[in-house]
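Researcher: Next sequence.
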Amino acid sequence: MFEQNKFVKDLNALISGYLSKEQCESYLHTMTETFYPNSTHVDSSTELFTKIFNDNLVSERIRFLTDTLVTFASKELSEEKYIELLLEFSKLILTQGENNLSFELATNVINYCNSTDKYELYKAQGLLLIAEFYMRQAIWKDAVNTIKLGRDIYESHNYKNGLAKCEFLMGSMYVEKGDLKAGKVRLDNCLNYLDHDTDPMMMAMIDVHLGIISYVEGNFQKSLNYYEKALHKFENLGDSRRKAEVLQNIGMIHKQLRDYPRALAIYNECIKIAKDFGYKPILNLSFINQAEIYLEQNKIEESFKFAHDAMTLSYQLNDKLSIAEIHKILGVISKRKENYSAAEHYLLTSLRLNKDLNQDLNMAETNYELGMLYKDKGDKSQAHNHLLDAYKYYNKNNSKTLSTEIESYLSGLAN
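Model: Next structure:
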């Protein structure tokens, strides 16, 4: 008996939703002959896909699945159904961290739609998928420009759900970069466009981002309330990926409250979900958060192990934000080992990467660590400069606890 994971379930639903029973059987023959050439029996789609992806999701196999499915669908489906399948499949594999493949499929949709005026709303969906790709790579300028192109289409059709999605992506991007005020404005715009009763998924995602804003401001209880509202909605919707994502954020609150056993238990749950369903970005983030918790507990070897695992996965995913974060962790590890030269190298690398990515919040966190490093080394001038940069960010974004703490360090350096 095969255990059906979420990816297989969604993949099976996608294929059966667009292909007839006879077309499904024909496609399954192709997949069976490729992966199990000596088999005389064609499994059901659920059993076959579970066997193919039984060791979690393998990028090479997803690539093969993509190539064969797209080719098969192009011959079997009508023009409109073919475009719809490309969009839905692009969304599905984006959740698995297959960013480049998702980008290729969305680009195919846009190129297809450019040859006719019939499918403008599909083109807008493709543009927003490409914007999400750029956001995951922290290519902010291209993300903004692509969202604007999608927004122009939605405005011309007065399609409010599409406009809400555009505002949400802009708000999400600003929050990710650390510009909380601009993020809040965009999220409020999204709420104004949104039909609250018919789109619980988007409402839940807005709750998550409002929780992030409250978290950075240091209002942990308010943040937790937002996260738990979102978690309840995701569970009701059966969305295991977003459930794991919001659990990550809840774990961060318990980490800040120094409830490390609870935080680790949450991240272990996230790791299990990520491995069961092949959510590599969530697995990567879980490794990073566990590395940070072990570091705060001064369990250096455990922290280094998880940081190393995260670095390996981050390069596989081309996750530049995580790479910058891991350099910060390695810098703090080196500082704890009193290897100040290595610590300085890692932290300056993290700062440079975050500057390149325009990550204001992460820059503030790294500047704080650099300030504390130079303080320990007795370099008051450098300590003051980096701590002041961190203070400016936290004070601007109403993070009173951190800004007060840094203010006391700056006062001590002045004496």
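Model: The chain has a mean pLDDT of 88. The radius of gyration is 23 Å.
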